[in-house]
Structure formats: C-alpha cells, structure tokens
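As a warm-up, study this chain.
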Amino acid sequence: MELEVRHLRVLCAIADTGSLHRAARELGMAQPSLSTQLRRIEQTLGGQLFVRTRTGCRPTPLGRAVLSRARPLVSELAALVTETRAAAARAGGPQLRIGATASRAIPGWLRRLRARTPRTEPTLQMDVSANSLLRMVAAGRLDMAFVHEVEGSPLRVPSGLCLRVLVEREPQFVCLAVDHPAAARHEVRLRDLAADRWMVDSTVDGEWDALCRVLRAAGLRPDMLHGDYLTAYSLAATGEVVTVSQPTARPRSDLAVRPLLGDPIGVRLLLAARSEDELDRGYAELEEAYWEAARQAPAYREWLGRAGAPGTAGGGAAGVTGTADAAAGTGAVDAAGARVPLSSPAALPRPDGRGGRRVPAG
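Now compare it with the structure written out below.
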C-alpha cells in the first residue's frame, strides 16, 4: 500500500480526537473500517503509531514523529484547496454556499437570501454534524454555516473562523405521542417519562451525551435507542419512544411538542464564516427566519411568553438567554472578548450596530 494524503488525515484525526470511535465519526467512517485502515498504515510504515488503551489512543514515539511531518502536509493541502476553490468561485460569478444542521428556520432563511440577492442562488449543504460543517467552512467548501452547539459538548472550531451567536441558549423540548399522559401538561417533568424509551440520533455532535447526563442527573436509566429523528418522530407518534425536539418544531396531529420542566437541555445557535463580512451576508436574514419559525411553533411561542422574551406576551426580559438584543435588532458582544459560556446572560451593545454576539473561536 502506498501512503496517501487521506491516510495522513486519518492519523491526524486519531491524534486530535484521542479515540478511534470519535475519529471515525469525524471522518464519516465506520470504526471497524478505520481500525483496519490504521493497521494497514502501520504495516506500511513498519511500526505501531498509536497505543490503544481503555480510555482512548495516544501516539507512540514513532507516531509523534510521523505526525510532526503529516500535519504540515495536510495543512498545506487544505490551504491549496481552499484558495483554489475561492479563486474558482470568484471566476464563476457570485455564489453563496451555506450549510446547516436541521432547523425550521432554513426555508425562511433561503427565501430571504434569494429576495435580497436575486442574482445569487444560495446552495444548501445539510449535515447532522456541526463539526463537519465548520470544517467545510474553514476549507472553503462553504461560505457560512448555521450550527447548533449542544450544552456541555463544545464544538471543535477550526482556527480562523468567525462566529456570531444567534441564540445564546435555546431550550430543547420533548416530542411524544399526543395521547401520552404527559402531553396534557404545559411542561413535562423528566420523571413523567421514567417508563419511556428514548430515541436519539447519536450522529448529532454531543446530543447523546447531553441527554444521558441529564437523565442520570434526574436519577433515570431508561432504555436508549439510536435512530435518526425522522424515525424517532414516527415511533414517538405511536407511543413507542419519546425523543428530544427543537422548540421551533410544529406539532402534528399525532405528536405533541412540550418544554421540559427546568429546561435541562440547551443548545447555542451559531453562524460561522471565515470573516465578519461573510457573516454579514446572511445573519440578518437568518435572524428574521428563526423568529418567524419561533412564532409559528405554538409550544415555543407560549414558552417565550412565559419567559418574557421580546415580542411576546411576557415582554421585556430575555427569556432565551442572549436573544433580547437580537430580537430587538441591536447587537451584543461579550464584555472581555472571551468565549461566552452557553448559559451566560451577559450582553453588551455592539459598537458597530451589526446583529448578533461575536464569539472568538476556540
């Protein structure tokens, strides 16, 4: 076997994540395939590159030597691809390549982008992995990406990216059958779901771990099933499972979407690009689309009203942390220029008047 750049990427991913399992997810591979590929690379190079332990993988002295040469090569190739794609995009006319994790705001965002720049047709790349989308932006394959950062599982933000917060902390709701006893409540207690099985998409960065932490903290050990959310909603409608849900999801006749008491699960909503100017190309339209989706979701609209978010019956305070300025059309930036914690309510006016809260990467 001849050593190729893709093999060097495999070695870098294993070293960066410290785990074959996490590296496989990052690379979009099955773990057995990654293990086989690593063995072939080690056979080609003539020595063991990683020590496998119960807690993960760490490079051997030989592995560190190989990585010291591999990282610059991978980085240089990535820069070559990014610069070439950027040059090709400029030659081909105006483009706007956006990526996103799942959100009800996406249709409205696309509609507004088309209306603002009718000669530029935005293209859309959907992915369940926010980390994958961030890497695509850093590599020049996307101009911007709208992503979710699950509380307790920080995203691995490539250097050089600019981030702007759309919502500092969006609560995650629960989706269950409309005839489930807990569906009669305005807010569902976790103990009301103690006898239910949960289905979660473990390919969504951080989501499985977050739910497990919350359930353990509540003293619950329910059966947990892996599955995509289209399947989860179908099974939830029949009472087979319950599942987490974005608050902007609209209920179906056979499904109920309800807040969880105490809002134990939260995500931060971010727009990422390679520059502030790139962020300005899509942030305002995304902000409008998100709040339009929020108004169209009865459970979320009611929750916002109780929390006192702007534009709702409660008025005034920022119930969705960090969104008061966004909904009012002004901006916010963290006070010390440091990364703002997901649960932080701090918001200071931006001097430049642009929307959103800037977040330094890393």
